[in-house]
Amino acid sequence: MDIKTLLCELSSRVSVGNISEADDYAAEYLSKYAKTYKSDNGAVIATLKGKSDYTLMLDAHIDEVAFVVTGVDGDGFVTVNTCGGIDIRTLPAKSVTIHSKQKVTGVFCSIPPHLSPEDTDFEHITDFKIDSMLQSKAKEIISVGDFVTFNTKPYELLNGRLSGKSFDDRAGCTVLLELAKRLSKKELPFNVTFVLSDMEELGLRGAKTASYEVSPDEAIAIDVSFGDAPDVSSDDCGKLSNRATIRTSPVLDKAVTNKLFDIAKQNSIPYQSEVMGRSTGTNSDIISVNKSGVKTGLVSIPIRNMHTDNEVIDVADIESVCDLLEKYILSRGVMNV
Amino acid sequence: MFDILKSLCCIDGISGDEQNVREYIISQIKDCCEYKVDNIGNIIVFKKGKKRPFKKLMLDAHMDEVGFIITGIDDNGFLKFTNIGSIETAVMLSRHVLINGKINGVIGSKPIHLTHGEESKKLPKADTLYIDIGAKSKEDAEKYVRLGDSAVMVSDYTDNGEVIMSKALDDRIGCAVLIKMLKEYNEYDFYASFSVQEEIGLRGAKVSAYAIDPDSAIVIEGTTAGDIAGTPENKSVCNLNKGAVVSFMDRATLYDKEYYNLALNSKLKVQPKRAATGGNDAGSVHLSKKGVKTLSVSAPCRYIHSQSSVVSKSDIKAVYDLVLYMSDLILSKGV
User: Fold this and answer.
1) What is this model's ipTM?
2) Domains, chain B, ranges and CATH?
3) Which of A65, A82, A115 to mutate to test the interface with B (most CBs of B within 10 A)?
4) Which helix (H) or strand (E) holds A303?
5) Do B111 and A305 make contact, defined as CB atoms within 8 angstroms?
6) In terms of pTM, does the model score above 0.90?
7) Which of B286, B223, B300 is nearest to B257 (CA)?
8) Total domains in the fold of chain A
9) Could you tell me if residue A325 is inside a domain?
10) Given this model, what pLDDT does residue A112 score?
11) How far away is chain A from the Cα of B62, in angstroms, using its nearest Cα?
12) Which domain range does residue A322 map to?
């Protein structure tokens, strides 16, 4: 399966809370190549054995930004809270799936112009309602605590670019699945453990327990980063289609980061660099302080419209991350540093 | 009728670019009536009945939907656009759009992580929005898109058995009802107009009403339903599942009181529109030539002019029933 198809399969599925469509799909895919299990802490964990006891962990989070039901009224309107950062200004008239006893298609209410003053503030998610289109039957079907997700199916733009939901971080998951396939045919210098972690959007929680469980010697997180767009300052973003973004930050291990740059240069793998003066906001922040500390790097993939249901990505950028990490692993990472 | 409605909603046809809608409608009606396409694109229809009517009746539904037109391409290949018909900025952010029926695009929106303070509470100005088609440069984009091209917001047509969610329900509902009338009502002669350019100023119906020269008219529409949780009764305008909506007045028309009362007293599932807001083709039709007695019958439509408008199937049936009832009354009794 090519990278684009794999990303689309993962993006079309859902992973939040107890809804684990994407997890199940990824676990089945990984189990073709590596010893795979689903941990009690919500992560999908797969390992390829290598020639030493040293373990490199690759992490991507599989959860997506979503909502959770906080109330249902007698006319079929549902109130929600967010799971992860969502720009509520983008919600009116957006269609969603409510994962109840049965899947329900609903829509975020859009207030007609005569009811909303010209300059309304968008303050709180609690001001929004979802119309379940079930009228009085909604209360029988939908419960408080049910999860709600966007239902965009991925679609193709020009130049190998795609748009869809939850590329953050199914793009990273795609890298892991592709690498498991590639590396399963190779003799590895050390163990490589693939972790699809949960609850990143709620504060890097899944990677905390998963990295404790795996207890790696070295780790690389793969996540997305801001891509260029007319309304985004060039200081805040990388460029779509400029390939793998190697990140530098005080929380990241210098040796790992330097080696990533070296491998890219030696193998003529195109890359871009993004430097941050603080923690990264990704799972690498929490993995690096696991137990007595883990040498951790971060590679990211630029996307536009992050945390919306129409994120934009270049598939070739994902491929370049796979190329970079494959070479990095086969050249022993920083095992001997 | 609902199969036809689904087909109609899935066709793209913004104001001034109704060609594909027109072709589909013609394919549906060509065997049951006489029709011609006029100079601005309206389909003018004559349906021969068994009997001659007491009054010349015109039924109207508009074919066009709201959407966008491409107005510029920047150096990085992002498209500038303006809306065709009224669309709120809030329903444009981060949407999948389709240009010319084939090029995918997305209206971009800045990541929440990079919006701060007041910016995160206020909508951006509509003229700062752009469409991303994945082009790498202006030259790249120009290979696929020309200034003046049409775009619509993409939606999945959803039918849960009782309620439909789709784009373009305003006014493909009217088109579907009118097609059913043309196929099934055979008592008296009547005329119909599938009109263009309603959303940019009730323009098509002005021309078709002139050509048909009716005594009476019924405009079939979708109208704003504000019956959303938390909205007071006096602001909700009309309600889903409470039947066909008839108007006494809107921003374009003061309706014929006799028709309004006859509709309300029909014992069918009818509700009055509880606000004098909006406007539709009646605004053009009722002032045509020496004036035309006009009624508008609408389906209540939540989130109108978005890609996720919501209507009830029972209301659409009620619209059909009322249009049939009032048409028969006008044609057979000459009211």
Assistant:
1) 0.92
2) 2-65+167-333 (3.40.630.10), 67-153 (2.40.30.40)
3) A115
4) strand A295-303
5) yes
6) yes
7) B286
8) 2
9) yes
10) 78
11) 21
12) 3-64+165-330
